[in-house]
Amino acid sequence: MYQAPRGTADILPAEQAYRRYIEQKASLICGLYGYERIDTPTFENTKLFTRSIGDGTDIVEKEMYSFQDKGGNDITLRPEGTASVCRAYIEHGMANLPQPVKLFYLTSIYRYERPQAGRLREFHQFGYEAIGDADPVIDAEVIEMAWRFYESLGLKKLSLIVNSIGCSECRPNYLQKLRDYYDNCGEQLCKDCQTRRERNTLRLLDCKQPGCQKLIDNAPKSADYLCDSCAEHFNLLKKYLDDIGLPYSISHRLVRGLDYYTRTVFEIQPETEGAQNTLGGGGRYDNLIAELGGKPTAAIGFAAGIERIILNLKREDVQIPVISKPAVFLANMGENAKLAAVKLASDLRHAGIGIIQSTGTKSLKAQLRQANNLNMRFAIIIGDEEVASQTVVLKDMAAAGQENLSWDCLIPKLKEILTAST
Ligand code: AMP
Fold first, then answer.
1. Considering Cα of 311, then 317, then 320, then 323, what sign does the dihedral take?
2. Residue 104 belongs to what domain range?
């Protein structure tokens, strides 16, 4: 028996209503804030990701699906969306467009992680990027948009966490302070943190091991070591968020897992599980475009995990619209009736009426049982007698009654009763 690879999932019809709901809300919110859709390739040159995400990060060290293709090119399946969008921004000369350029994506992401609830190896993200403006007004707008997106989905039990991790001017000084602090913690650190201390100092702050929590609580805070311009940027952002009325809190633990972030970082977390199962996160990345070969260009973005949203929609029991299915079953009995039914089904669908058509090989009773099992609201029955008189029987599956209708009347009648009941 073949099975889907570990960490991947078939998205069965029952789950599609959630996806469509989320995608519709995402497109709607993007329309409101002026974001246009971009789709980039599923794979890119490996260097794009190693360069942008950073060598010492979990993604680059342990999680990328990388391989050489038959032409000897180093290829990686997209482990996040931002680097590809930035590559496209540079490649297509989008610096010449009015700035900021606002782009969104709905896409699959690949990370070789340990699968568990809400953690897959192939998952999906809704993400967006505002490229080409450094003003904190944009940060506030991007954060607000994320919050309004979850709000529009009907999710309520969420918290919004914000922090500033400074820029290339002030961060080295802060990192040194952090290293000095951790140098004195020695043996108390977990094994992973011993490595992080050298290779990815900031990530010490989002260690999940119980033994490291007290150390993190007392660690120096990035917001206390910002240079003047980062401090002003952060103060303005907080003011804008206050003015908008977003219920955010500031946490010095929030650093995010990728190297390219500068200044503002933020996450939206479920109240119950907090950072364990973050719903979405983002931040500013003012050096990334230049790092990838473009002109220095400030930018900020956000990405939300679709599977985690679905988990939370279910947990919060949010009712989502069902995807409509055909409500009319077409049964037939007899040679001539079968022929007529093929044409009738075609005419009805052409008129915009969804039909589940029986092949007529079973008894009428069995066909109607099938209609019942499929939860059909109406059944049209056509036998050789009806063909001769150019009529059909229309049966309301929930009621006892049925009526005879001429072929001419069938489409208007069905349209009337189906519209009246939606
Ligand atoms: P990141 O790019 O790591 O900031 O992830 C953005 C969002 O994608 C997270 O907040 C999660 O909602 C989601 N996400 C990240 N990794 C996974 C994963 N392995 N499986 C499912 N969702 C994920």
1. positive
2. 13-170+226-315
Of all protein residues, the one whose alpha carbon is nearest to atom 14 of ligand 1 is 305
What 8-state DSSP symbol labels residue 99? Answer: S
Residues 246 and 114 in one domain: yes
Of all protein residues, the one whose alpha carbon is nearest to atom 15 of ligand 1 is 305
Q: What is the distance between the terminal CA atoms of the chain, rounded to a whole angstrom? A: 43
- Distance, CA 109 to ligand 1 centroid (Å)? 9
Residue 2 lies in a domain: no
Under a CB-based contact definition with an 8 Å cutoff, are residues 301 and 293 in contact?
no
- The dihedral sign for the CA sequence 11, 17, 23, 29: negative
- Are 126 and 71 within one domain? yes
- Nearest atom in ligand 1 to the alpha carbon of residue 111 is 19
Q: Which residues line ligand 1 (CB under 6 A)?
A: 80, 111, 113, 118-120, 123, 125, 257, 278-281, 303, 305, 307-308
Distances (CA, A) of 295 to 40, 52, 88, 341, 397: 21, 15, 14, 65, 66
Q: Compute, in angstroms, the gap from residue 304 CA to the centroid of ligand 1.
A: 7
Burial class (CB in 10 A: 0-12, 13-18, 19+), 319: exposed
Q: How many domains does the chain have?
A: 2
Which atom of ligand 1 is the closest one to the Cα of 113? 19
CB atoms within 10 A of CB 281: 23
Q: pLDDT tens digits for 137-150? A: 999 999 999 999 99
| Residue 220 in domain | no
Q: Whose CA is nearest to atom 11 of ligand 1?
A: 305
Contact (CB, 8 A) for 18 and 313: yes
Same domain, 266 and 389: no
Residues in the chain: 422
Ligand 1 atom index nearest CA of 80: 2
Helices (H), ranges, 184-296: 191-199, 213-218, 228-244, 288-291
CATH number at residue 372: 3.40.50.800
The mean pLDDT values, 10 residues at a time, for the chain of 422 residues are 96 95 98 98 97 88 96 98 98 98 98 95 98 98 98 96 96 93 85 83 88 92 97 98 97 88 96 82 97 97 97 95 94 96 97 96 96 96 96 93 94 93 67
- Could you tell me if 248 and 384 lie in one domain? no
Q: Are residues 94 and 33 in the same domain?
A: yes
Asked if residue 271 belongs to a domain, the reply is: yes
Q: What is the pLDDT of residues 234-272, one digit of tens each?
A: 999 999 999 999 999 999 999 887 888 999 999 999 988
